[in-house]
Design brief:
The complex is a heterotetramer. Chain A is mainly α. Chain A has three helices and no strands. Chain A has helices spanning about 5-25, 30-55, 55-85. The longest helix of chain A is centred in the C-terminal third of the chain and has 31 residues, at about 55-85. Chain A is elongated and about 55 Å long. By secondary structure, chain C is an all-alpha fold. Chain C is built from 16 helices and two strands. Chain C is globular, with a radius of gyration of 25 Å. Chain C starts with a helix and ends with a helix. By secondary structure, chain D is an alpha+beta fold. Chain D has two domains: about 10-55, no CATH class; about 65-380, Cytochrome-c3 Hydrogenase, chain B, CATH 1.10.645. Chain D is built from 15 helices and nine strands. Chain D has a four-stranded antiparallel β-sheet. Chain D has a three-stranded antiparallel β-sheet with strand order 7-8-9. In chain D, strand 8 (about 325-335) and strand 9 (about 340-345) form a beta hairpin. Classes of the chains: A mainly alpha, B mainly alpha, C mainly alpha, D alpha+beta. At the A-B interface, helix 1, helix 2 and helix 3 of A face helix 1, helix 2, helix 3, helix 4 and helix 5 of B.
Amino acid sequence: MMPIGHYLFLSLALFLIGAIGVITRRNVIIVLMSIELILNAVNINLVAFSRYFGDVAGQVFALFIIAAAAAEAAVGLGIIIAFFRNRETVLADEMDLLKW
Amino acid sequence: MLDSVIFYFFASIAVVSAALMVTRRNAIHSAVFLITTLLATAGIFLQLRAEFLFSSQIILYVGGIMVLFIFVIMLVRLDVPLPQIRSRLQKWIALFVALAVGVEAGVVLLLARKVPGQGLLIPNPAPANQLHPNTEELARSLFGSYLLPFEIASVLLLVAMVGAVVMAKNRTGAP
Amino acid sequence: MSPTLHSIVAFVQAWWVELLCALLIVLVVPLIAGYIVLVERKVMADMQARLGPMRVGPHGLLQPIADALKLLIKEDLIPDNADQFIFWLAPVLSMTAALTSMGAVAFGPWFQVARDINIGLLFVVGVSALGPLGIVLGGWASNNHYSIIGALRSTAQLISYETTAGFALVSGFLLAGTLKVRTIVENQRNDHAWYIFLAPVGFFIYLIASIAETNRAPFDLPEAESELVAGYMTEYSGFRWSLYFLAEYANMIVVASVGTTLFLGGWLRPFPNVHWLGWLDAAPALLFAAVGAYCVFRAGKQPARVQSLFMWALAFACFVVAAIFALASPFSHLPLEKMHDGLYGAFWFLLKDSAYIYIFMWLRFTLPRFRFDQLMRLGWHILVPLALINVVDVSIALALSSEFGVNRWLAMVVTTAATLGAAMLLVRWNDKYSAAASAALLTDSSVAENSHAG
Amino acid sequence: MNILADTVHENAAQKTETVLGADELVINMGPQHPSTHGVLRVKLKLDGERVVGSECVIGYVHRGVEKIAENRTYQQFAPYVDRMDYVSAVSNGLGYCEAVEKLLVVEAPPRARVIRTILAELQRIASHLLWLGTHALDIGTLTPLFYCMREREEILKIFEKYCGARLTTHAFRIGGLQYEAYDILEKDVERFCNSFEGRIQQYSDLLTSNSIWIGRTRNVGLLNSADCIALGASGPILRASGVKWDLRKSMPYAAYDQYKFEISVGMRGDTYDRYMVRLEEMRQSRLICLQAIENIPAGPIMARVGRVLKPPAGEVYHAIEGPKGILGYYIVSDGSIQPYRIRIRPPSFINLQALDKTIRGHLVTDVVAIIGTLDIVLGEVDR
């Protein structure tokens, strides 16, 4: 069986790439996608531990994370559409007004 | 032997397409690469004998959320490449920080290899054929001990649905 | 032998059946999809008082090969400022989704690529969720206004009818109790009833949702010829277009197989446990013999020599298959038990599959096309609630029959009646709502009229 | 009342604003479009999927028939009339010949009038069949097209036997008929009428009670009687909106006053009512043909009209009930052998005016159904 270190390393790599994406990208949709990537990295960890500890709780929790990610993506994109319709831009650093 | 081949195959695809996703100019291209990453992680779930999660990941993530992303990118006409990276300096700082964290964690994992059980006090994992059927096991715990979070998750989804619809609704009044 | 070579050999020895099936699927399915197209054109022609393709080979039997060759030769245009990478990826994505989801489908007790993975049918539904992605990316990448509208519409339709199909399947899974394909069919044998009889509303909703899921009439709005020309497939031509086309027909096979496995008793003979209906086992042999005899009868009448030769060959093939079936049938006491199961199972499964696909074709030629808002209203206002009610009813029936010992059939009949009652309410409420909506539509259009007048 | 601002320029799909901005989007349902019955271009102004306004661009098939008429003799102009509404050539010819006969104050012999009525009614059925086939195809059903074409083929065979041509027949002459009815005309028409009853039942089984068909046509393209009269629409469109007006009853011509038949009238004037009205009209035409072939009077088939027609100076207006609506001929003659002016009232052109009113507020898919239900033929619209 694979030592678990490999899975931890993989999810770490994905997490880091996601973090870079969130920090460096100006386009809000790409930022949202990077957040999805981070959530995915977390899922890998959960499933890896649930497989190695033989307890299925990890997979159940991964399911909840997928549900939460779906909710978050839906609302996030809703905000982006509403924002885009008023301000015609999707760049993160132009979202500097609390009320327009 | 077969397990490690599958794992390295999916892991490499996941990491490479994740990297590509973050660096692409065109939003649709990065969406497509995110889809490849999600499919690769689904493959890893399969390798970890989590079949139900494999199919729910594909149905929910790839079939649902990513289609939503592509819809928004198409509607928002975002595919025109915009100046993507903020300031050059910030990019380098982020890369440096990520590299540092990566090296540090890598060292920890490599050192932990010698300690029995990977230093995480893991009993030896159960071989594949003695595993209980994944779906029944998942269902038993989901509707058994985790019933309350299940209901809360459904309420969360409902709230998100209503929120998204209200937000994105084209207020006919608006000019 | 080096260790890697050794492990490869070990791998092949362990999995050669699956690899063979996978190879068979990838090679044979495009051929079968081509012949489904031919059958569809022939049946359509028959219903429209005409002959259909007759020119290529006797009775047009070589038409699919001719089509395939034409599509290979045809030039493969790429619109100038289209997105090359996505334009290439989209049809490939659609085709892989269709073919991989065929992996978990069991075409007979022995013919299954993913030999009984634990989530069986869910794997099929899951992987076929990639189809809408291929369509939306294809529509967007071809950078043409009509194909974007077509792509948006078809994805909205696929997503909403995927949920409906999911709920309809849930009512089937409740009865079967498992997702594994083999145990589903075994349970239907042990329950002495196909699940279409226990959850008829579930099957009916699944039938409608599967038609919508494969973009076929009366839900074929995305490529409605009359206004969107060809929807998301407008800019595709040549081999790329045939990928999309085969993906549609492969999806049709997948959707039909899921319906057959879950509701029509997979590879079970119509009355598996009834002994005095044993002669049904002879049905396959008799059917092929009859087809062979018909070919012989027609061979004489063929105008061209090569066509009559072809018909003789066809007749010979039918008789050989009939002989194989006869050989493997239980009446001949040869020790061919395994072969019998495999062959007869495959025969009955494919028969039910083709009946299911025939319903697809039949509806395509008779029903007009839905308007997009009617389609979405039917999907969300009627089918999704009905599917939910059906799941609730089936579970009530199951609870009644297992805990309280009520007779299973009685419970099923009562709950089906309740579901149908709910369906009537839904439809009546919807008609009132849509009547109000269309009235509103007209009032605001007259308002628009006044504002423009003068 | 120019609905579209003049600045709308001509490219195919010009987006004034992103779909999200929800501003008007001008789409060209261009001349080459699978469902605009001939060469009609409709510039649709869309708000999202809903039609806000429209503008028809016609003239792609304009041949200047009326100008040509000014230097053709009366007999020479007759074939031009068939090429206008190429789907109902026989009734075009009937209208023209009767108008000139009115100018010459000549009456066609009774036998000619009865045969003219039979052929005109058969032509009405053929035109409605073509309409039903293409209309159903636009809305999505593939099968009725082939059934309708099969019946239409029978009628065209009868025309071919009678006057040698299937489509542009030029069957009639000023003053009567050129050809004597071929001997088994009655038997052919009778055989067609007997089989046709079952065929009409086939169409209505397929469509009338089909819930999707009703969903797609009920309350689509509403045109009440006031609008119809205001726009001058005529024929099945007028009758579907509740106005009981049919020239065959109100101003009988040819031999229509000898036969009993009903005028079918709709209530709401939507696409479904027009479908029912036209279906009923086909049944009534079949009844007229059956009554007519019972006793075709013997006698001459041509009135005493000289070879050279020099009608007295003056003008005449004669209208008949064509399959599409009221087909009128206004002929001014200055006493010479060539008409001074022939003005034709084409029903399709005037019914097309109703397009903008009926389209408004509907979705793009309904536009296709509405163009189909107006039953326009571009040859007649452009002349």
